Amino acid sequence: MQGPIGIAAAVALFAIGTLGLVLRRDLVIKLLALGLVNTSAILCLLSLDAAPGRTPPFLSPAFTQHMVDPLPQALVLSAIVINFAILALALVFVMRIVEQYHTLDSQRVEHEVEGEDA
Amino acid sequence: MSPVTLVLFRLALAILSILFRRFHRALLLVAHAIDAVLLVGLFARLSTSGTGEFILGPWTSATSIAFSLDRIGLTFAFLGFALSLAVMLYAWRETLRPYAFLLLHLLIGSCYALSFTKDLFNAYVLFELITLSSFLLVGYERKARQIWASLRYLILSSFGMTIFLFGIAVLYHHTGTLHLDTLAPIIASNQPAPWITLSAALLVTGVAVKAGVFIFSLWLPSAHAEAPPAVSALLSGLVIKMGVVELFRLSGVFPLETTLLVLGFITAFLGLVYAIRTKRIKRMLAFSTLSQIGYLLIGFGAGTEGARVGALDYAVAHGLFKGLLFLAIGEIAALAGSDKLEHLVEHRDRFPRACRWVLIVACLGILGLPPFAGFAAKAVLEAGIDSTLVHTLVVLVTVGTTAAFAKLIPLLSRPFGGPRCSISRALGYGWLGVAILFFLPLSRLLVPRPIWLTLFNALAFVEALAAVLLGFVVYRLLRRVPWRLPHAIFGIEEALMTVLAGFLLVWGLLVTV
Q1: Helix (H, G, I), strand (E, B) or coil at B280
Q2: What is the nearest CA distance from B502 to chain A, expressed in angstroms?
Q3: Distance between CA B232 and CA B7 in Å, rounded?
Q4: In this complex, do B162 and A14 lie within 8 Å of one another by their Cβ atoms?
Q5: Are B262 and B295 in contact (CB under 8 A)?
Q6: CA distance B377 to B162
Q7: Counting beta carbons within 10 angstroms of the beta carbon of residue B313, is it exposed (0 to 12), middle (13 to 18) or buried (19 or more)?
Q8: A83, B249, B358, B394: which has the fewest Cβ within 10 Å?
Q9: For chain B, how many structural domains are there in total?
Q10: For residue B49, is it within any domain?
Q11: Facing A38 at nearest CB: one of B125, B151, B158
């Protein structure tokens, strides 16, 4: 994908993900939206140096001429692993919440927790 | 001897503590003994050969994983060590699941690494490591309310870190480096390009979510209040200080003075308003943490080197006494069965006397009375502030803090009565108490000698005393006033929206000023 289009797509994905996080009360959908938000930053990093004719960053004589900048690609690998870990652990915690309160609705969970306070 | 050894050693211990789970106590002792030796070694190296850069792999510092040994990093590594030792002693007798030790080593190791890093992407990875380990530690007891608090923490800080990553993307695209030392001249020569303000706003928003700034970190009160005491002490004392260090490092590269000053005042006073009204003591401590972070940001934004250094110094002092407060309140709340003030007062005769004593020491520390840690750091900070208006507002923060902490007075009566507490806990309290009392020599590591000498003047002493007395008056006046504060803003959706609003505020401030 070309640079500007990729970045525009990343911003759009971020916006959609944020809307999902704020507007949807279902916790699983919230986590999916969080995944979308996280992915948008990765797309943004990858699109920075992308242009027609650029090749993947592999060290071989045929490739090095028009190779894209390898550093963002390396950064993205760490970010993907971290986001995977976050989503996996968050899903386990959502599971515990459902076991306890029998609902996925964030407002109702909030309500139940406040009810325990009083 | 390099910071890398310190970090790698802790991360290796994290794995060893799972492999040899029977020996986790011995491993903890070994960890702290070796950490102490390594920290002393690093200090010796710093004082003989000065600051240094340690690069992993055959690359230049602009693109590789680099650790920098400097006074700031070393001071915060010491804070990490002090709190980790206190928490170890506090939890010595408890039977914990083995993975708690894995997470503890991981958390401390990443905090060491983050203190020494000047690379923004390193900081991103380490922030996420800290988030993951502290998220699991908050929910460690598996109570549903803890799990809900830590889930909100995870979602908000992951969201914040994504914004940080966008900032990294903008910055890397225009400069080709993410190392703060190489960034500083590029940014200074390109002022005021739009991409600088955009990336600064994105980075500050991301870090502010982690650092406990009021409009960004609305996950903080419930996460810090619900977590087990040892974890709260680490979160409030150490973890959010890592965000503060990063904000400090960013403020050395980007022109953030006004932005930090405005954010500082917002978070200092909103935090105080909630802290004064809250009757649940752990929650009150969490709100007080928010307001104290505001105090630090004011120091960063005040514009002089003295105030910046003083604020860093205060960050360390605050880490020590807030850690101690969370540990002691955690113990007495466990005895009383709740952290509500009326329950605590009801059960106060059963509190160990050591708890009373350390509460007194920690409260005097946070009120900034001599000779405790808070006084020294506050004096440095306030000596560095030029503007009278800012100075007055800073003193008002101390007044408000006193008004918030005055409600603890009924808990402190009869300091010689009550049962003894276990030896390991007494040692843990004692260690932090001594650190708070003998803080002055420690702060010499950060504070240059000319500024340090200004501490010893009568005016600062009188000012500290007057602020505390005024705080008691405010407490008496406000006690009977019925006013309710909105608590809906701490819901997850609202907290996300305030992060976005905060981003717009920061961006607007950076563009207009």
Answers
A1: strand
A2: 15
A3: 22
A4: yes
A5: no
A6: 34
A7: buried
A8: B249
A9: 1
A10: no
A11: B158
Nearest CA in chain B to A79: B125
What are the structural domains, with CATH classification, of chain A?
3-117 (1.10.287.3510)
Rounded CA separation B235/A113 (Å): 22
CA distance B98 to B110: 19
Contacts of B147 (CB under 8 A, 6+ apart): A93, A96, A97, A100, B139
The helix (H) or strand (E) run that includes residue B68 is: strand B65-69
B331-367 in b/e burial notation, b at 16+ Cβ within 10 A? bbbebbeebbbebbeebbeebbbbbbbbbbbbbbbbb
What range defines the domain where residue B366 resides?
Answer: 256-481
Measured between beta carbons, which residues in chain A are less than 8 angstroms from residue B219?
none
Nearest-angstrom CA–CA distance, B288 and B321: 12
- Residues of A in Cβ contact (< 8 Å) with B173: 48-49
Rounded Cα distance between B92 and B316, Å, is 24
Sequence length of chain B is 513
Which of B154, B172, B496 lies at the smallest CB-CB distance from A72? Answer: B172
Answer yes or no: do B131 and A94 touch at CB < 8 A. no
Contacts of A101 in chain B (CB under 8 A): 144
Beta carbon pairs, A and B, within 8 Å: 99
pLDDT (tens digit per residue) in B21-50: 888 888 899 999 999 999 999 988 988 888
pLDDT at A65: 67
Q: How far is A37 from A21, CA to CA, in rounded Å?
A: 9
CB–CB contact A113 B144 (8 Å): yes
Query: What ipTM describes this predicted complex?
Result: 0.94
Do A93 and B63 make contact, defined as CB atoms within 8 angstroms?
A: no
Which residue type does B123 have? Answer: A
Residues of B with CB under 8 A from a CB of A: 63, 121, 124-125, 128, 131-132, 135-136, 139, 142, 144-145, 147-148, 150-151, 154-155, 158-159, 162, 165-166, 168-169, 172-173, 491-493, 496-497, 500
Cβ atoms A20, A30 nearer than 8 A: yes
Structure tokens at A28: 């699983």
Alpha carbon distance B109, B104 (integer Å): 8
Residue B136 identity (one-letter amino acid)? L
> Which amino acid is located at B347 in the chain?
H
pLDDT in tens, B355-403: 888 888 899 888 888 778 888 888 888 888 888 888 899 899 999 999 9
Residue B476 belongs to a domain: yes
